[in-house]
């Protein structure tokens, strides 16, 4: 084979691949719940027992990606794109409980939908715990 023909072809493939991977990793749009989610009311808001139960669930279901303190630094999250959300950030915490509920229920790659695998009241317990993670 002629090296002069292969090299330019490989270069083009590599450049296009790097451009695609670079744009792809940064081009995921910000995850915003629909406005209707803000109307979803947390039936367990302020319930200390719900937050304690939520902490137990968080340790089993969420810690692997979001980390022990909710900073998005869990061991399984390291290889994900986009990275898991920092649940302690002001930006995240400024969302309504309904918006967070909607995200947990709906999911978005790489985060799974938990609509059928976590009962509704347990999702609210997790949200009550997440609210305790504020910076």
Textual characterization of the structure:
The protein is built from six helices and no strands. It has helices at 3-26, 48-61, 63-66, 90-93, 97-106, 120-130. Helix 2 crosses helix 6. It is globular and about 35 Å long.
* CATH architecture descriptor text of the largest domain: Orthogonal Bundle
Shape: globular
* Content of β-strand: under 5%
Helix content: 40-55%
Q: Give the full name of the CATH homologous superfamily of the largest domain.
A: Cytochrome c-like domain
Provide mean pLDDT, rounded. 86
Rg, nearest Å: 20 Å
Pfam family, one: Cytochrome_CBB3
Organism: Arenibacter echinorum
Keywords: Heme, Iron, Metal-binding
Protein name: Cbb3-type cytochrome c oxidase subunit III
Defining key terms:
50% helix; globular; Cytochrome Bc1 Complex, Chain D, domain 2; 0% strand; 6 helices; mainly alpha; iron; 2 domains; heme; 135 residues
Summarize the structure.
This protein is an all-alpha fold and 135 residues long.
What's the SSE blueprint?
Blueprint (H helix, E strand, L loop, with lengths): L2 H24 L21 H14 L1 H4 L23 H4 L3 H10 L13 H11 L5
Helix pairs in contact: 2-6
